[in-house]
Amino acid sequence: MDIQVKTLAGEDAGTISLPDATFGLEPRADILHRVVRWQLARRQAGTHKSMTRGEINATGKKMYRQKGTGRARHSDKKAPQFRGGSKAHGPKVRDHAHELPKKVRALGLKLALSAKAKGADLIVLDSATVGEAKTKALVSQFKALGLANALIIDGSVEANFAKAARNIPLIDVLPVTGLNVYDIMRREKLVLTRAAVEGIEARFSGVKAEAAEAEGEAN
């Protein structure tokens, strides 16, 4: 698959060939759903918790005598049915993460890239560098390129470019090691630099794949 390469100024900078094995697959919503659900589950804090009877600071004295009152048998006021008592079957601190095979995760990333390419929502830039960290100038360049809601991926993000882009709404900038399915799908456009394309090819060809995958999916 050949695609036109642009500069930040909107000028043509040749073409680049994208591998069909990564950018030419037929999108599958079920795989994308599984990977996004896996990512979001890993991000979930899981720190919600309610107090048990043993954690409530209250007297342990029996409410009233066991027999002869005609009322139900109770011990102390920390029972769930009483105001100020514990919560029955309440949430506990836990990890929401679940397992997903590496092959499915890798396939999900390829399908996300292919979905952007097939929908004409993929743009390749020659480079993502600016002389000064000026947000106003970068907004004008993005407007000329038609970027209002986009994820920009570079091999290693330049400091000036990152500073200029971080205050622009609906624009995310990530290094190629942070590339993940959720961030791709939540933005309308995907912008890759030449260095990012090379990094993606290296990632799927096995060069530093384990380190890149671990760092990217942890986001």
Automatic annotation (TrEMBL):
Q: Which UniProt keywords apply?
A: Ribonucleoprotein, Ribosomal protein, RNA-binding, rRNA-binding
| Gene Ontology CC terms | ribonucleoprotein complex; ribosome
Biological process GO annotation list?
translation
Basic residues biased stretches = 62-76
- Gene Ontology MF terms in the entry: rRNA binding; structural constituent of ribosome
- The annotated region (Disordered) lies at 56-97
- The lineage's top-level taxon is Bacteria
Query: Which SUPFAM superfamilies does this chain map to?
Result: Ribosomal protein L4
Q: Which InterPro entries match?
A: Ribosomal_uL4, Ribosomal_uL4-like, Ribosomal_uL4_dom_sf
Q: Describe the protein's quaternary organization and the partners it interacts with.
A: Part of the 50S ribosomal subunit.
Looking up HAMAP family in the UniProt record yields: Ribosomal_uL4_B (MF_01328_B)
Q: Which protein family is it in? A: Belongs to the universal ribosomal protein uL4 family.
User: Which purpose does this protein serve, as stated in its record?
Assistant: Forms part of the polypeptide exit tunnel. One of the primary rRNA binding proteins, this protein initially binds near the 5'-end of the 23S rRNA. It is important during the early stages of 50S assembly. It makes multiple contacts with different domains of the 23S rRNA in the assembled 50S subunit and ribosome.
Question: Which protein is depicted?
Answer: Large ribosomal subunit protein uL4
Q: Which organism is it from?
A: Acuticoccus mangrovi
